[in-house]
Amino acid sequence: MEELETKLSEISPLIKKFAEALEFTTVCEFKIEEWDNLISELKFEKGLYYIEIKNDKRFNDFNNWIKDFRDKYEQKDEEGKHIFKYRFVPNLIKKRIKAQKEFGEWIPMYIGKSMNITDRVNQHVNIELEKNTFALKLKARTLLHDQTFRLNVIEINTNHYDLIVPRIESYFREKLNPIIGKQ
After folding, report:
1. Please, which pLDDT band fits residue 8 given cuts at 50, 70 and 90?
2. Burial of 129: CB neighbours in 10 Å, binned 0-12, 13-18, 19+
3. What is the largest CA-CA distance in the chain?
4. Does position 183 have pLDDT exceeding 80, yes or no?
5. What are the residues whose beta carbons fall under 8 Å from the beta carbon of 62, sequence distance 6 or more?
6. H helices of the chain, where?
7. pTM for the complete prediction?
8. N or C: which terminus of the chain has fewer CB atoms within 10 Å of its end residue's CB?
9. What angle do CA 47, 136, 41 make, to 5 degrees?
């Protein structure tokens, strides 16, 4: 075990250095109702995906924007109950919200990894609320249908996906601080 620990300690800085040299490529901007027409054009396999939401400029500061976004994302029914609570969806993350330094044109929303990026992002958009698959379930969030999203990807074709890609994902999660996630 000691030898394995030593080798992993040697590899970790190399993975970080590799991650620092990577950049997301913007693939497309979309609204929820446009997604099904775009999906057939997208073919991405192993790697990371990063979803941003466009700042619609209705607010002068991030605190007011995030309050409005929280109300839409955590949508309530007529009785005031959260529709998405306990429905296998990621939550807003307080520490990542507090870490936001800029209030620019795009707000970092969600970052993830997948062996099939295209299928995974499609799940985030289209999967039904009732399904037990963990996803954003954007189509079910009717109060977000007027929002514009942007998809960015980094393809990482490696035979050591489970060893490398989660560490690169962590690096970008710390760097970008997406406001929604499991972590």
Report:
1. confident
2. middle
3. 59
4. no
5. 100, 103
6. 2-21, 35-38, 62-73, 94-98, 117-126, 161-176
7. 0.94
8. N
9. 55
